[in-house]
Amino acid sequence: MPPPPAARRNRSRRGRARKSPTFHVSVFNCMPEPWKPWERDWAELPADAISCVLHKLRLPELLLGGVAEVCRSWRRAAREEPELWRYINVRWLPKVPPFTHRATLENIMRSALRLSAGQCRSFSGEDLDDRLFMLLAQRAPFLKSLNLKDCYPIFGGGGFANAIKKFPLLEYLTLVNCYCNEEALQLIAKACPCLTHLDVHEIRCHSYRIKGSADNRKAFAIARMHGLRSLKLVDDSLGNQGLAAIIDNCPNLKYLCIHDCWNVSMDGNLTVKCANIIMDYREYFPPSEPCDCVSPMSYGQMSDYDYDDYHDLSLYSYLGDEIDTANLDDYERTLDVKGMRRYLS
């Protein structure tokens, strides 16, 4: 009996050889491109995201880092947002590579103050002279906090009297190793009526920290700062009479710290006057002041450092009146994610 028709059809299909598929040559012209590493278009980030990243950076990273080399939108965001430049700290910059002939203290100060558009609120500087201090006074009329270290040329010359008059809103003043005399303190008391916090550190050699004759001239000048709320004096020659004058003429004083002031002895009279004042009797040690922007390098390491790995395109983009983008074509669209990871952390 012959098999049914369906069985014959299945048997014939299994026994038939399959033909290889054929494609037209045009199909091979539409093959996908080889896989490429993932890239991010940093230029298309929203303005809020770019601003958030830039606010996490410090001044050396903004001026000497790679912000200006990312793309035009990042450079524009850094240049056109004065909020980024309200707190300017140019201390330790000589120890931040690459500190080249173009990245001098004066150039960085001028660039940062220009970008702040007069909105700088806090400034920290080191080794400033009369010219740089006058530049700060002219470009930062709304300054509220001033921190100076080793700026004795300012107080030795005649430019301090003209510059300090331009800081009527100053509230916080810190002077470390500036050798500020009583005439300068009198000018500060007259020109800065809003001053509420004063720190004066005169760190001398330890062998000279011995008790001697009291010199209350600086103390009498500080007593004219009637709005003081906190006062810190280190290694000063004031005596009991000078300290009593400060307490009597500064009714709002709440915190007093006198380190290494060997001519002061807290007798019964001073103890009564300081009853409502927080006294800090802790032993004073000069701060090591670690660099708050990058890891500090020793001079031996810096001498062997390969500065050819860096270039000052970032600083040049900020110092110039116009942006030179001739060397930034490779950075216009994309940047390696690994290179930007530290900006997003």
From TrEMBL:
Pfam families: F-box-like (PF12937). Residues 39-88 form the F-box domain. PANTHER family: F-BOX DOMAIN CONTAINING PROTEIN, EXPRESSED (PTHR38926), F-BOX DOMAIN-CONTAINING PROTEIN (PTHR38926:SF43). This is F-box domain-containing protein. The lineage of its organism: Eukaryota, Viridiplantae, Streptophyta, Embryophyta, Tracheophyta.
